[in-house]
Amino acid sequence: MSTIEKALQRKKAAEAERKRQLEAKQQADSSAASETQSKDKETVISRAAMARSKASQQENMPLAELAETEVRPVPVTVDEKPVLEIALDREGFVSLTSSRSRTNEEFRAIKRKVLNNAFGPLAKTLNNPNIVMVTSCNPGEGKTYNAVNLALSIALEQDKTVLLVDADVLRPNVMNTLQVSAGDGLMEHLLGEVSDVSEVMYNTTLDTLRIIPAGKTHHLSTELLASEKMYETVQEFATRYPDRIVIFDTPPLLGINETAVLANLAGQAIVVVEEGRTKLADISTAIESLNPDMAKGFILNKSQRLKVGGDYGYGYYYSGSKE
């Protein structure tokens, strides 16, 4: 056999060997893949069986043992609402640093009547005695100023908390009076744009004071005040925190029917009367629109006193009997 023929035979033999090795490798890879798939399938089946077994065990497990099983933590959404900074000592307002100021003394007398009505013997005869509406006969008679000061005074109590709600959605002024700002408020809650009223309840630098602003303007704002959702909200406020006074700064009584609807939800009403401006006929008409079973009080606002130290003060008077 020639050298060339021998070389061709060796080449053919080498090619045959490479082909055999390639086929053997492909067969081995195929077998390995099948084995891996089989193992993966067995693992999935095994895990599913274990899950069913665990669920069955938990279903039959006593409650005491079930409570001890591992519970994975649920992510908690951080409350990103701003904390409203309340001024500690502003002229004409209840001072949080000087407890014996004239304004403090005046509102201390007023809040004692409110607290006695809410938590004293009369409370049993009132519907929602811890719900207090502060209103007036007409706009501009000082109801918001008095609502804010009453809230600040109650916030100084050691064992009581207060929630101030700006329900005068037509002319909201609580936030301006306190010189603070916030986002969503009562209107967003009544419109269903927030899932819970707590989302529009803002903490302040006073641990005992929280505020709900009026929120955005809406063409059906007065109707929303008389809605079923408003009723449910007030009832929740009345029962959720038994030690809390809830103050609603409401629209004036005259010309706005929805304020009278709110009066049926509150246990107490404080009507702010401006000396020298509010007419007796207006006061009489306003009183007739209130719930006859609620405790009623009056604050005579902007009452000139004797001139002391070059300044004129304000006079506040409260008559809190159930009529």
TrEMBL record:
Query: What are the GO MF terms of this UniProt record?
Result: protein tyrosine kinase activity
Name one cellular component (GO) term. Answer: plasma membrane
Where's the AAA domain?
Answer: 133-275
Biased amino acid composition, Basic and acidic residues: 12-23
Keywords carried by this UniProt record: ATP-binding, Kinase, Nucleotide-binding, Transferase, Tyrosine-protein kinase
**Region of interest: Disordered:** 1-66
Biased composition, class Polar residues, residue ranges:
27-36
InterPro entries on file:
AAA_dom, Bact_polysacc_biosynth/exp, P-loop_NTPase, Wzc-like_C
What domain of life is recorded for the organism?
Answer: Bacteria
Q: Which Gene3D superfamilies match?
A: P-loop containing nucleotide triphosphate hydrolases
This entry's Enzyme Commission designation comes to 2.7.10.2
Q: Which reaction does it catalyse?
A: L-tyrosyl-[protein] + ATP = O-phospho-L-tyrosyl-[protein] + ADP + H(+)
Q: Which family does it belong to?
A: Belongs to the CpsD/CapB family.
Q: What is this protein called?
A: non-specific protein-tyrosine kinase
